[in-house]
Amino acid sequence: MKKILVSTALLAGVLSYAGGFRVSLQGVKQLAMAHTSAHAEDASVAFFNPAGMSFIPSKLSIVAGGFGASNKVTFQNLNTLQSTQTDNPMGTPLYAAITYKPIEKLSVGFSFSTPFGSTIEWPNDWEGKEMVQKLELKSFYFQPMVSYKFNDWLAFGASYIYARGQVNWDKAITQFGGQINIKDEKASGHGFGFGFYFRPDPKLDISIAYRSAVDMKAKHGTATFDFPSASIYPLLGLDAAKRTDGFTATLPLVEEYTVGLTYKITPKWLVSADFNYHGWERYSQLTLDFATAPIGNQADPTISVSPKNFRNSKTFRLGTQYAFTNMIYGRLGAYYDESPYTDDHFIPETPSFNTFVVTGGVGFKLKQFGVDVAGGYAMPQSRDVSNATLGFYGQAKATAFYLGLGLSYNPF
């Protein structure tokens, strides 16, 4: 069987609109403060920086939470003035983490998260149907980790990443009047993360972290074809009864660098800031290589190559928290997220926008228990689409909002 190389940007949703397909929803408390990372109050810090576990005041900490994310994308052809809108289902990212200090200087933990994924669904007969009709991605990160605290102000932590993923992608094959579905439910990959966490002053926390790229490998994928006439299948080297072609895949997920800090202006009021750098350059093109189906655009007709030309991107975040009482906390934030590609490389599989996001939330502490709620409203900037490679021109707009509920338990 020939090999198929499919970049994950092909296989992802648009939950976060700006930074490609990275879903920045790994902590409800963090989202309320613009998804900033230098907060070592409970186990939610584990995903952002494993070294932060060493500064959690509780010996044992458990957190879990989830989000509802709604998004819509609208594309208008400026020549025909025809407008098309997605009908995306509600996204539901989840996270959970646990940390424990077996001895004073050593902390261990485990983080579960869904940092890439969601679904985009265009009408079956829209003008971009040959690129995408529906695209669904589910990714799951499992991260065991350890942290060592060298002294009162410095800790180092590292994590191993095991990733699992599922993809389900539909698009039209108009020359035969049919469709293709690309599906794999057992993709997997490996990576790592590490970080330093500093507290040089009781008022100041500094977090420096790196999360590696993960190459997801799909070894049991199936491409299923649907044509109006059974006579078409033999022309493509397919069995008309099975209608399938196998494939393997390597799906790259990008690396991320983060620098964050939190400063306590007063005992009740703190401010946080983050800078994220995302290594999107590794997604330069999309290559599909089917086992037998000759539906490509290369000398070998089973191979289809599409340039993507992603570039590295940045995110700037600023958040704040104020303690109204020992039990009630108010939070606000805002961030700006760059799209990893220009207007002339816009793709409807992963429509991405330069985006401003405002966030807010409330936290409640009841002895060892904590309850956090948060929300975010995204304001993606419209794009003048001019992708000559795809022959795709027009204007794209989007809207999105997020709601989250998180729970924490620090028993001792």
Account of the 3D structure:
This protein is mainly beta and 412 residues long. It is 3% helix and 57% strand. It is built from 3 helices and 21 strands. It has helices at 28-32, 45-48, 232-235; strands at 60-76, 83-85, 94-103, 106-113, 117-121, 134-151, 154-173, 178-201, 204-211, 214-226, 244-253, 256-264, 269-278, 285-289, 303-307, 313-323, 328-337, 355-366, 369-380, 383-387, 392-409. The chain has a 14-stranded antiparallel barrel with strand order 1-3-4-6-7-8-9-12-13-16-17-18-19-21. A two-stranded antiparallel sheet has the order 14-15. Strand 1 and strand 2 (83-85) form a beta hairpin. The radius of gyration is 23 Å and the shape is elongated. The N and C termini lie far apart (55 Å).
Number of strands: 21
User: How is the quaternary structure best described?
Assistant: single chain
Helical residues, percent: under 10%
Summarize model confidence as the mean pLDDT.
89
Taken as a percent bin, the fraction of beta residues is over 45%
N- to C-terminal distance? 55 Å
Give Rg in angstroms. 23 Å
In the sheet with the most strands, the strands line up as 1-3-4-6-7-8-9-12-13-16-17-18-19-21
Structural class: mainly beta
Low-confidence stretches: 1-19
The string of secondary-structure elements, in order, is HHEEEEEEEEEEHEEEEEEEEEEE
Membrane topology: Multi-pass membrane protein
Protein name: Outer membrane protein transport protein
Organism: Chryseobacterium tagetis
Family: Belongs to the OmpP1/FadL family.
